[in-house]
Amino acid sequence: MKSIPMMELHGSTESHTDNNIKTTDSTCPYCGVGCGVTAKVQMGSLGQKVTITGNIHHPANFGKLCIKGSNLADTLGLESRVLQPMLGRKAQRQISDWDTVTTKIAEQFQHCIDEYGRESVAFYVSGQLLTEDYYVANKFVKGYLGTANIDTNSRLCMSSAVAAHKRAFGEDIVPASYQDFEHTDMVVLVGSNTAWCHPVLYQRIMRAKEERDLFVVVIDPRFTATCEAADLHLPILIGQDVALFNGLLQYLYQNGKADVNFVTMHTQGLTAALDSSHSESSIYDVAQKTGISLEKLELFYQKFTQTEKVMTLFSMGVNQSSQGVNKANSIINCHLLTGKIGKLGAAPFSMTGQPNAMGGREVGGLANMLAAHMEIENPKHQQLVQEFWKSPYIAQKAGLKAVDLFEAVESGRIKAIWIMATNPVVSLPNADQVKRALEKCEFVVMSDICAETDTTQYADVLLPALAWGEKEGTVTNSERRISRQNAFLAVPEQCKADWWSISQVAKKMGFDGFDFTSSHDIFKEHAQLSAYQNVQPIDRTDDSIFRYFNLSGLTDLSITDYQNLAPIQWPVWSSEQKEDAVARLYADGHFSHADGKAKFIATSVVDPVHQTDSEYPLILNTGRIRDQWHTMTRTGLSANLSTHKAEPYCEVHPQDALKFGLKDTELVEVKSAWGSCVLRVVLSDKIRRGQVFASIHWTEQTASDARIGKVVNPVVDAISGEPEFKHTPVIIQPFYTQWQGVLYVRQGFEHYTKNAVDKMVWWTKIITAKATRYELADRRKISATTEKLKELLAFEDESFEWLNVEDPSAYISHNIVLRDGILIASLYIAPKALLPDRDWIASLFKRERLSAMHRKALLAGQPMSMGNSEGALVCSCFKVGKNRMIETIKAKNITDEKQVTACLKAGGNCGSCLPEIRGLIKICQMEARL
């Protein structure tokens, strides 16, 4: 039965007694917050209606969802799916069957191993995989193929945090829980636009701030939505986090704020850490290095010094750096010095970007790890894992990390690669190098749900994987909480779980140990390995292979218990373990290093590898936006999620725009030594001069030239291998075109316009409720005549009715295409300021027929009764724009976002827009004072 996606706003309920409704609890497939969701599938005469709401019982979110989670039902259709196994690269691709393709993979892998050795085969997987899929992939590669050449896109977001945890604690552990943000007195958000990237946790922090005296600090080069409600914003120079926290370490020590007993009893290495940070012993020097004013710096240092309960949340702005590991360790050092760890409301907290980045870490998903938190180059750990797996070979050295892995593909050292649930041609730095590598690779296998991505075109074998809503398994969120992802949709006939496809290949290569019949079988084995020769802290000895990661209490789960597994944090030492038993670790001061002590890590400030110069004078910073996810293969299907930030854009400071000849909303080419792309200019005084910001989401499927990964430099952290996404020297320059335009075409008729779009020098694609919108620009001096446009748009048969008005000399042309009175397409070519309101045009496609007045309005390019435009959308849930919001704030003299919600409903559902509403209130208040 075809899915008919329909979104239901948070808070609504369905009857559990209706036999036509199936209710299933699951976990959101987006960020690392790991929100619980409830899916309801109602069968009807038109098919099935799916609604998604927050699960009020899930401890990660208690029913709250962000805008992406609220719109999950929009992403469940089959239109973009891979539905059968396929053989051959894009141009020659043919439908095949599972027996044929798994046999081919097995034979090709064996050929490569026999001919070139074990290191010639590699996997590149994803934090989107369930733990069970991740486990089987790592068992197959590291325990049977005998290589550690399996890495993950999680390398790009949290591997620096992993390395920092292991250096400091002896194990990759986030020692606190989300509860701690509700009990702390100070929250420091470092390199994290939490309001947009982890909205539910951000709203949880904001509720705590409303209820008590909570001091919030945001450390970010940009003034983001997260800063709107902060007590202090530190606009740090990009890359200077080590200097900032080394300075804090010195300040704490100099002011006698070390927890002497904790440091003496439970840590090592303080002297070396202090020596390495000596150049930051003067707060004046730190202010100069970081670009933060002395007044703000002193306030931050004083507050941290005076506050017992401090939570420091750090994310991509820390991790995605050539100094990412040292940045994270410099933060952890400050918590160790003051004993702010293992206590209620006090800890460093790494926030992951993907739904199962932590689950992947548990099973050894990175190339330099073994399963169950064991070390890949430790002979005792190798022996233990090989013994448990009964495997013929075990990897004995770290494999190639993501960037190095694809360089090895291009150089020919890797002959075969299997890519799962990720899109590296878009997401990796120096992304055109990845494209070259896959073009040259002898054998590329891809498991995906999307038929057309920038990466699938290079697949020699394309496998149809299960999507969210079809999969069964577990994920682990940023607070170590394991939750179930449950299936609630019928599985397309030929789509298979990733663990199943790997197991089939393993068996065809002659390997035992892959006779799994369900995800339950895999989870039990995963739990058993975590407990194998592992003890509880109280029983630890010098010879123990001790890890806090231990699922002993889950090793005997029945299939029913597994299906009904409630969210639980690890370690799980007992089947009777209470929910809050391990909300925080290290309260007793016992860490995972062999001596039980934490380690201070000596960190020193190192300049970025690539500096700005006369050729590339600006620094490019990249990141996410509020309503999109990764490369938009899921969120791009939802019209609701395309309304907030519809086009790929580049934030530029107004003075830099003046210097480089740029105008607001015009096009700009962003160019580095590695590549270039074309984006829409957004002028912003919330970014420093000398810096530009671009979002990561757009692909060749959604824009002609907006893959920012092409521009990003491939430098990585020497320890973690995580790329430097926050500091690439670039130049910006106007991207000149003769004209710009906007094309709308009703869904189902896009093939009539493909020729026109492909011929444009620049375009971007936006999904709306009933039509696809294209923003266009071109350099050709095309005469805007009806005949020429008909050639381009291909609505040539007599069933279509054309309406057209034009002024070719001014490059103005308004064109409307109808069939049986229904609006099929509209194309406007004009100076950008004269192009019509996009939301108004989109609304006309929702009408079954157009009146004569509507036709006249469309030809005129504006409504006949001109009301005030909504302006840029702020609230996606209730479709409230910036202009209406400002009018309401001013008219009613609003001073609080709750008043806006009361008047307009905006902010009353998912809450993702609340930071922007706060910002608009501030702007209105400032204007009123002038």
Automatic annotation (TrEMBL):
It holds the Pfam family Fer2_BFD. GO terms for biological process: cellular respiration; nitrate assimilation. Coiled coil: none annotated. Its cofactor is Mo-bis(molybdopterin guanine dinucleotide); [4Fe-4S] cluster. The keyword Oxidoreductase applies. Keywords: 4Fe-4S, Iron, Iron-sulfur, Metal-binding, Molybdenum, Nitrate assimilation, Oxidoreductase. InterPro entries: Asp_de-COase-like_dom_sf (IPR009010), BFD-like_2Fe2S-bd_dom (IPR007419), BFD-like_2Fe2S-bd_dom_sf (IPR041854), CT_Nitrate-R-NapA-like (IPR041957), MoPterin_dinucl-bd_dom (IPR006657), Mopterin_OxRdtase (IPR006656), Mopterin_OxRdtase_4Fe-4S_dom (IPR006963), Prok_molybdopt-oxidoreductase (IPR050123). GO terms for molecular function: 4 iron, 4 sulfur cluster binding; metal ion binding; molybdopterin cofactor binding; oxidoreductase activity. GO terms for cellular component: membrane; oxidoreductase complex. CDD domains: MopB_CT_Nitrate-R-NapA-like, MopB_Nitrate-R-NapA-like. Residues 1-20 are annotated as: Disordered. Residues 21-80 form the 4Fe-4S Mo/W bis-MGD-type domain. Belongs to the prokaryotic molybdopterin-containing oxidoreductase family. NasA/NapA/NarB subfamily. This is Nitrate reductase. It comes from Acinetobacter silvestris. The lineage of its organism: Bacteria, Pseudomonadati, Pseudomonadota, Gammaproteobacteria, Moraxellales.
